[in-house]
Automatic annotation (TrEMBL):
PANTHER family: MAJOR FACILITATOR SUPERFAMILY MULTIDRUG TRANSPORTER MFSC. Belongs to the major facilitator superfamily. EmrB family. It is found in: Cell membrane. Residues 15-491 form the Major facilitator superfamily (MFS) profile domain. Keywords: Cell membrane, Membrane, Transmembrane, Transmembrane helix, Transport. NCBIfam families: efflux_EmrB. This is EmrB/QacA family drug resistance transporter. It comes from the Bacteria. It is a multi-pass membrane protein. GO terms for cellular component: plasma membrane. The keyword Transferase does not apply. The lineage of its organism: Bacteria, Bacillati, Bacillota, Bacilli, Bacillales.
Length: 512
């Protein structure tokens, strides 16, 4: 466990503040980019299945690196880890800001991800160690308020920047802020850490990288190459084999890189399952909605950002309230109410038309975010609360890894579902149009044919988006059923501490 930040009566607010600012900048960058995806698609002449790599590629790197963060937190000080994380994020932002081709832009995003992968588990671990269980919900609520300010600001700011400047300005805007945070952290963070004699297990790192990386790459490639591609199912199979080997190896080690024994704590295992399913549902709104409003409806980036603003503000406003409610009532009632709202609103998003009103979309999205605000933090905090303190680095690393993997899988599945449904609907509508034209025997001008093709393409994409939202609704229902089994968690007894203090153990040790 990270011993340089010990649980005291007065939490280290200075360290927490610097870490939160760094995490806020990283989160802001992600929310800025979502609105920009259609503009990037147009300028760089790429398809939705390709542009999704700006999100899934980011998550791929996170999924590979986050499993190592438990080791890093145990070995290095908060100061060193923060400076490395923020330095990598700043360098990645500069690379992305000068990109004029997609591979360079993707490289910049992946370097950003290398920094972000360290930042979030580090902050979560400091929060868990710094606050007792009975105050943890309120503390996480304030943490959520600060981070939720990013999606409140991000889409609107992104829309304004894209309307007035090139999309690269999104990265140029973040660069000086990230550099300033890096400098502040260099001077303000002074924590020391005693030298810890642990080494990174290279074999475990290799198996982890191939396992998580293979799974995420395989699922993410399905949108471009199709599920029948050897590159897709081949990497998924290799990923599964490597992941299983990684788990078996970790179970045999005295000091595993990522401790899978934490899943024997039922509330942590349940919370992990729920958050994975929610992540798969959540990405439907983050990826599909901007494509719908900008590509199909022609709504400007600025107006698209404003449409998402009320939902983000609701989520930010609710975060500290949800934290206090969690401390008082526990996670189950919040999760059940929130997931019911999430399920209903996601279903209504599967009924979009080419004439759905702007205000209707704004209100529906705001209600959906209200439901989401009652789920993510209470569920994950309740699961972490059951872990003994020495497992906090492994719990936060595991949570963040599973979030990235499920996010990548969810994004890939929903984009693939949308693409396949769009193609099948386009084929069907084209055949119907040709049959109608041959039946009537009428001659059509080139302009009329072009208009029909455009209409078919729009209707086909709409059907694809609606079907993807319907699948996301099924994910929400699964999460709702799982949430019914949540119980309020309290820290479990540490088996190692029990052995050390048990009076029954002492005679046996003496006999040996």
């Amino acid at each position: 466990m990270n011993q340089d930040v010990k649980e005291t009566h007065r939490p280290p607010y200075g360290i927490i503040s610097v870490l939160m600012i760094g995490a806020f900048i990283a989160f802001l960058n992600n929310t800025l980019l979502n609105i920009a995806l259609p503009s990037i698609m147009t300028e760089l002449k790429i398809e939705p299945a390709t542009v999704q790599w700006l999100s899934t590629g980011f998550m791929l790197v996170n999924g590979i690196l986050i499993p190592t963060t438990a080791f890093l937190i145990e070995k290095y000080s908060v100061r060193r880890l923060f400076l490395v994380a923020m330095g990598l994020f700043t360098i990645g932002t500069i690379i992305a800001g000068v990109a004029h081709v997609f591979p360079i832009l993707l490289t910049g995003r992946m370097v950003q991800a290398a920094g972000s992968a360290i930042m979030m588990p580090l902050l979560m671990n400091v929060m868990l160690v710094s606050f007792p269980v009975e105050k943890r919900g309120a503390a996480m609520g304030v943490f959520g308020l600060i981070l939720m300010a990013a999606p409140a600001i991000g889409p609107t700011l992104s829309g304004w920047i894209i309307e007035h400047y090139d999309w690269r300005m999104l990265f140029h805007f973040v660069t000086p802020i990230a550099a300033a945070v890096l400098i502040i952290g260099f001077f303000l963070l002074k924590d020391k850490k005693e030298k810890v004699n642990i080494r990174l297990d290279v074999v475990s790192l290799l198996l982890s990288s191939i396992g998580f990386g293979g799974l995420m790459y395989g699922f993410s490639s399905a949108g471009n190459k199709g599920w029948d591609s050897p590159q897709v199912y081949g990497t998924i199979i290799v990923g599964i084999i490597s992941f299983v080997s990684f788990v078996i190896l970790q179970s045999k080690k005295e000091r595993p890189m990522l401790n899978f024994s934490i899943f024997k704590y039922p509330m942590f295992a349940l919370s992990s399952a729920i958050t994975m399913v929610i992540n798969m549902a959540m990405f439907s709104g983050m990826i599909l909605l901007p494509i719908y409003v900008q590509t199909l409806r022609g709504i400007s980036p600025m107006d698209a950002g404003l449409m998402l603003l009320p939902g983000a503000l609701v989520m930010a406003f609710m975060s500290p309230i949800t934290g206090k409610l969690f401390d008082r009532f526990g996670g189950r009632i919040l999760a059940v109410i929130g997931l019911t709202i999430l399920t209903v609103t996601t279903y209504y998003f599967s009924k979009l038309t080419l004439e759905t009103g702007y205000t209707h979309l704004m209100i529906l999205h705001a209600i959906r975010m209200f439901g989401m605000s009652m789920v993510m933090m209470p569920v994950s905090t309740n699961g972490l609360n059951q872990l003994p303190a020495r497992f906090y680095p492994h719990g936060t690393a595991m949570n963040n890894t599973l979030n990235q993997v499920s996010g990548a899988i969810g994004t890939a599945l929903l984009i693939t579902i949308m693409t396949n449904k769009t193609e099948s609907t386009a084929t069907k509508l084209t055949q119907e149009a040709m049959s109608h034209a041959s039946a009537t025997g009428g001659q059509q001008t080139g302009a009329a044919i072009a208009a029909i093709k455009q209409q078919i393409a729009a209707q086909a994409m709409l059907e694809g988006i609606n079907f993807a939202f319907l699948v996301a609704t099924i994910f929400s229902v699964i999460a709702l059923v799982l949430a019914l089994f949540i119980k309020r968690a309290t820290p479990a007894k540490d088996p190692i501490e029990q052995k050390a203090t048990s009076p029954k153990v002492a005679p046996k040790l003496a006999e040996n």
